[in-house]
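#struct-pred

JT: dropping the chains for the assembly here, can someone run the whole complex?
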Amino acid sequence: MQIFFNVFQTILDAGAIVLLPIIITVIGLIFKVKIAKAFRSGLTIGIGFAGINLVIGLLKSNLGPAAQAMVENFGIKLDILDVGWGAIAAVTWSSPIIGILIFCILATNIIMLVLKATDTLDVDIWNYHHMAIVGIMVYFVTKSIPLGIAATVIMAIITFKLSDWTAPLVEEYFGIPGVSLPTMSALSSIIIAAPLNWLLDKIPGINKIDFKIKDAKKYLGFFGEPMMMGLILGGIIGALAKYPVSQILSLGVNMAAVMILIPKMTSLFMEGLMPISEAAKKFTQEKFKGRKFLIGLDAAVVVGNPDVITTALIVIPLTIFMAALLPGNRVLPFADLAVVTFRVALVVAITRGNLFKNVIMGLVCTGAILLAGTATAPVLTALATSVGLDIAADGSLISSFAATSLTVSYLVFKAFTSNLIISIPILLVVIAGTWVVMSKLSKKRAEILAVREQ
Amino acid sequence: MKRILVACGNGIATSTVVAMKIKEKCEDNGIDVSVTQCKLLEVESKADQFDLLVTTGKFTGGDVTIPVVGAISLLTGVGEESTLDEILSHLK
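RK: done, full complex below.
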């Protein structure tokens, strides 16, 4: 027993970089991936973690002091660095309880499918990290594994239901039938966008406004190219930090490097997870042969829509301005500006491409992300440090546009870390209430469609 | 050697899956390819350096002169083989 404990302790002491390959190999074996392949997956993910750690180090050591100087010079208090969702995903996959959470999410999906409580078959294991991180943060704060699991299961239920409900938008607006998008980074915006869209349509005058920008790409296109955005933002922040020209230039190039390198490192994670994801897909699709599903895919499949791109290109620079002006915000948007397309994709779908409403609603969504990101940065930073991401040595904070910065994730995290006797019933009532209303709406929609077909 | 550009929303997740499947298929058929991943937003500035563009999901966003294949089937698993064959046909 003592030996077992010692081995376990040694592995834990070695940190995420050793823990990750082991966890992933074990998960792989459980899904019947061959051991050599499972181990290679695990090691690839460990390498991804090491790579992300390096790039975050580069980001922190360059951007951190510049952000501090900017605070001193101009009082623009943006001292929480947006390190991007990739780094947060790395933290998520390094948690000691990630294995349990992955199986709980998959089990929740299978049980809901059996009970016909959802149509979404979600084997996009990669994006499980959006649901898992909430449980991991709840576990980190409360030290209770059952609460952590409960939070993740609630996230899973919300994710699958929002996927079901938004599937008609995906089919009608993006033209992809039979698919739903259980990617919380995209889904989360809908809980702001749906009521806001309804409200804007009720306001006389406002509900008539629409405009088109034909050449958004020509003039704003560089906001869509990560290297250009890194270079320009780095340069601007360097200038605001009152750096000498040589250092401004070097900050610009270093930030361009960060923007390009983070996705490269993150893709190692994806590469490592793919065999497991494929095995899970085979496993579940065999289980539910003959049943008609919505296949859950990464929201990446819809963000190529031109209206989504145009909206994002306008929302990105406005979000940077808003970050400086929004009372209470301390997040300096950076790495995740590259994925604003995901945050606005369903906004665009629900307005049917009305650019005026898209920009307004898109900004409300990114504003909510900034505020939740500010509020949960201390917990996220402590969590990231605890798994060995090399960041908080100088006491500064990190955040992103993912994890509990997302509106849905933030609300679930809050419910599980407040006074549970009050907050959990409220959360459950809201979910149940929404479910009832949405079922009625879906039924009505089905009836209208049936009449139209006759 | 043929050069293939695989584009998805963030240049990370779904494009990695598609890129790996294309690489495997090409290896099996003895075709020498180099596969590069990118974000859909970058496609227009990069496409002219490649022989084929493969996208996950619908790409309606821009002017590219090279052939385009939509590869959502490689993610859903429905119609995977015919999409892979279509990709191969552009490489021969």
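JT: nice. The first strand of chain B starts at residue 2 and ends at 8. Chain B has one domain: 2-91.
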